[in-house]
Amino acid sequence: MPTLILDNGSYSIKGGYATDDCPRLIPNAITRTKRTKRVYVGDLIDTSTDISGLYYRSPFERGFLTRWDCELAVWDRVFSNDVLKCTPTSTDLIVSEPMFNFGQIQRSVDEIVFEEYKFASLVRTPATRLAAIGAGHTIYGDDGGEPECVLVVDIGHSFAYVVPYFQGRQISEGVRRVDVGGRMLTSYLKETVSFRYWDMMDEAYIMNAVKEKCCFVSSDFYRDLDAARGCIGGRNGKNSLGLEYVLPDFTNSKCGYIKGQGGEAEQQMTDTDAQVLPLCNERFAIPEALFNPVDVGLEQGGIHQAVVQAVMACNERLRGVLMANILLVGGTAALPGLQQRLQSEVQAMSPYRVRISVPEDPITGAWQGGRMLAQGQTVPEGATYSPATVAEWQLTRAQYQELGPDRAVAHFTKFI
Amino acid sequence: MPANKRGGKKSRPSSAVDTPVHMDATKEIEPLANFRESGINNLYAVAKPFKRSPEIMSSVRWKNLKQIIAQEQAQEWPIDFPTYWSIDAPPSLLPQKKYCDITGLPAKYTDPKTNVRYHSAEVYQIVKTLPPGSEQDYLALRNASVVLK
């Protein structure tokens, strides 16, 4: 029976079978275009050319899945013949949920999976747990399975979680959260650009593309701020930190491109057509919010402080090992320069040697862990702790109907 | 009707020409044009959209985040369980710390006539020579003044 792994994120669904090498990314939202007033579910938005002023309707509310009418539409699209071609009645499902999910929402997920889609079995677990399972491959480079002690830093769309794991169980008193995620960074960029250059307050889609292409994390913020002084978009090539982003005109390009790196779209565009967004210190000042949420008005510490607090909340004997096995996953973790910056910041505050590992594609980090779980590679050889194999973990449809909704939720809390 | 992935027929707004969903799915039954005239006594023959009705799967059925949080708060929690809405500490069992009303230093003594707290004999000289109204003003700073109506 094939196993379907669904990393159900608030920005995108990473879905694929255990036999696939990498998952498909489907935006987890229903979008409506402004001018043509048409509704697109999930990845169908890529077929549309009118993407200005897109209105998003997301099933997630502050990172928790509450709007099921929206999510059912997206899941129908994901399971359809165009995307994953899934027949739920003969498929096992591994689905991810946010950390400390509400009991109500857990019950609703179980109910939808078993009563509505009628999957054969279900494993419902926090996304960081899946990432921890795949950590051995990233940290040690081999397929040895889950390391005994790992600290997962999951910087996603809604927030960033720091979760320590020991022998497959999370250390709940060591879990820390910073409410800065991809969504916050995109909004911050939108507001900054709207204040300085063009009004992009409605253009989340385009600003997201700008953030992913242009932003990076600087290793020394004040030095880069000085270097970027007086630069407006790197005009005349004077400042290496500035660049000009050519905004899309929806005939030649859809998302826009950086001037000089546009390829085909750039050659077809004449100079008079181009609407240009000059970016300089926004490139590294926006991701700085991850380390200083006070900049955006949040009274919280940065992710480096969250990492240190999380480790200090754990048992003294585990601290050194946790510091050496830090895994960085999540969409926002793909920002260039984040790993080095986080490494230097945490090392400055820690007496132990700090080592931060990032998989080649941080977006699919949790999905890859789910795939290793489905293939049975959870525990390294010779480990003394009892393995959480898929067979014990999963809840079959017959078990669900016998146990009922409350005890089904309790079944999964055993493995936390 | 196209079968969708949810293992049932596609739900759409019910109309007059719905084919009936038969409880015993062995044979189809013609829709009844006129219920009364036929003198029917087999209700299985009538179209009854049960769980496929659109209201059942609508957004009204699911709670939004505010309602979920309100429901969590209303549950029975143990008294000393720390939650985000109950971080109040219990009242203290230790005696209250008293501070001088004039200087702000720790006050070990109280003037019996006016209940003004003072730090030392030096400060008491000042307390003795206070004008009549200002003593109540000092007490009012810590909500201990006597208000005569």
From TrEMBL, chain A:
It is found in: Cytoplasm. CDD domains: ASKHA_NBD_Arp6. The keyword Cytoplasm applies. Pfam families: Actin. Keywords: Cytoplasm. One of its GO terms (cellular component) is cytoplasm. It comes from the Eukaryota. Belongs to the actin family. ARP6 subfamily. PANTHER family: ACTIN (PTHR11937). Component of the SWR1 chromatin remodeling complex. Component of the SWR1 complex which mediates the ATP-dependent exchange of histone H2A for the H2A variant HZT1 leading to transcriptional regulation of selected genes by chromatin remodeling. Involved in chromosome stability. This is Actin-like protein ARP6. It comes from Coemansia aciculifera.
Automatic annotation (TrEMBL), chain B:
This is Chromatin-remodeling complex subunit ies6. It comes from the Eukaryota.
